[in-house]
């Protein structure tokens, strides 16, 4: 499907430039109905590009046995999705994957049918591997984005623990061969870009935010009537939700804290039992997966957002919480310190440290109304550079082979004030 070409206004000169429509092929090993940051970004990117006048095709595993080419609607926009025959990966609660030994055959077939101007792969593991090699043979420009963290996958493998470090090292060595076929490589934050540069021995990885549409979220500045902690994300090991539950169990009972865990995953039943064992089951709600409207409502009614994960390359859920005007308490790991500024819009805690997390949560939950209001407004200010329109503009430039300056997304409070 192709949207109507738009005229774009240059923010520096005020000049208006018509968009030249492109045919973009996006390859993703995970795509909605999968629920995770990489899938959500690919969907949001595709929808945004269509709305800006481009023709977009997605290549992704079929979410069931039904495979083929379909017109699907995601993020309120319709576009073409090439669903590949897939197998279920049973160590995980929902993952399906396209067959690796068919990756180049599938890629060649789709490329010849679509004839794209550019290929943008979101994962180097299966679909991106085939697309990169076949697009390179055809002289098609390739852009790559990395959302991969070993911690997000290794626990779902069948490898014994003593082999995992070696497997990760070999996997990155193999990944380098695919990323080097791309003209441009991106990752969501500067920390994530540096991580990838070191892992695959690359220079010049761009830090480009996955972006959010902040206008969809509804901050609540009413006087709080309860203390509610929110977590949003996959209910799985690398998210360290057990650390959050342990911290909640140690909080002062007088705070009368309620906890909402939004998301599904393989540890859902286990963590429900953990909550029972800690004596906090009556105060913890596990919602499972929810519709978008209910997710937004969960952000709006929360007092503070908690992200105990140690494997976040950006954490869209944390950005969404900030766009909802929430202070954040997060692990001091990977990209989270770029979003959470100590004492300004929340606090960082030592990863895995239950007592430290409990202390930081208490600081927010006992903050004065004025202090809480300031943290809420500061969270909102820090989301401004992550606007999806900036992300779309940058990727459009990369698709055309233009040099880009990475958008500034990691700013100080003074920078935010000056921007206003």
Q: If you had to describe this structure to a student in words, what would you say it looks like?
A:
By secondary structure, the protein is of the alpha/beta class. The protein has helices at residues 37-51, 103-114, 127-137, 161-179, 190-200, 241-249, 268-278, 292-301, 316-323, 354-365, 369-383, 388-399, 413-419, and strands spanning 7-9, 16-18, 23-27, 55-61, 68-74, 77-84, 86-88, 96-98, 118-121, 141-145, 184-187, 206-207, 227-232, 257-262, 284-288, 304-307, 328-331, 346-349. It has 2 domains: 7-211 and 387-411, 3-Layer(aba) Sandwich (Rossmann fold), CATH 3.40.50.2000; 214-384, 3-Layer(aba) Sandwich (Rossmann fold), CATH 3.40.50.2000. It is 36% helix and 20% strand. Strands 5-6-4-3-9-10-11-12 form an 8-stranded mixed β-sheet. Strands 15-14-13-16-17-18 form a 6-stranded parallel β-sheet, sandwiched between helices. A two-stranded antiparallel ribbon has the order 1-2. It is globular and about 65 Å long.
């Amino acid at each position: 499907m192709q949207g109507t070409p738009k005229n774009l206004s240059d923010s520096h000169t005020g000049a208006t430039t018509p968009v030249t429509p492109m045919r973009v092929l996006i390859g993703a090993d995970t795509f909605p109905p999968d629920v995770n940051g990489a899938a959500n970004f690919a969907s949001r990117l595709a929808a945004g590009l269509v709305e800006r006048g481009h023709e977009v095709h997605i290549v992704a595993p079929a979410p069931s046995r039904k495979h083929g080419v379909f017109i699907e609607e995601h993020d309120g926009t319709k576009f073409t999705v090439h669903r590949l025959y897939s197998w279920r990966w049973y160590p995980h609660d929902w993952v399906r994957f396209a067959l690796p030994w068919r990756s180049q055959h599938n890629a060649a077939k789709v490329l010849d049918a679509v004839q794209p101007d550019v290929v943008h792969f979101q994962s180097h593991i299966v679909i991106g591997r085939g697309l990169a090699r076949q697009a390179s043979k055809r002289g098609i420009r390739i852009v790559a984005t990395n959302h991969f963290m070993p911690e997000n996958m290794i626990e779902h493998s069948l490898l014994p623990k003593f082999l995992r470090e070696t497997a990760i090292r070999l996997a990155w060595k193999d990944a380098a061969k695919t990323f080097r076929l791309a003209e441009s490589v991106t990752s969501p934050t500067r920390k994530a870009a540096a991580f990838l540069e070191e892992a695959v021995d690359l220079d010049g990885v761009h830090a480009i935010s996955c972006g959010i549409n902040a206008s969809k979220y509804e901050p609540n500045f009413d006087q709080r009537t309860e203390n509610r902690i929110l977590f949003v994300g996959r209910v799985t090991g690398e998210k360290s939700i057990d650390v959050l539950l342990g911290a909640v169990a140690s909080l002062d009972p007088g705070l009368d804290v309620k906890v909402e865990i939004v998301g599904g995953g393989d540890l859902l039943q286990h963590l429900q039992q953990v909550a029972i064992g800690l004596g906090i089951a009556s105060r913890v709600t596990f919602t499972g997966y929810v519709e978008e409207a209910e997710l937004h409502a969960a952000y709006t009614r929360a007092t503070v957002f908690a992200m105990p994960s140690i494997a976040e390359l950006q954490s869209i859920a944390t950005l969404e919480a900030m766009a909802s005007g929430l202070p954040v308490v997060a692990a001091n790991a990977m990209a989270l310190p770029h979003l959470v500024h100590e004492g300004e819009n929340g606090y960082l805690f030592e990863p895995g440290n239950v007592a430290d997390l409990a202390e930081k949560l208490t600081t927010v939950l006992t903050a004065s109304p004025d202090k809480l209001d300031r943290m809420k407004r500061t969270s909102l200010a820090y989301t401004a550079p992550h606007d999806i329109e900036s992300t779309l503009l940058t990727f459009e430039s990369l698709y055309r082979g233009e040099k880009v300056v990475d958008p500034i997304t990691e700013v100080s409070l003074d920078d935010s004030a000056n921007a206003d």
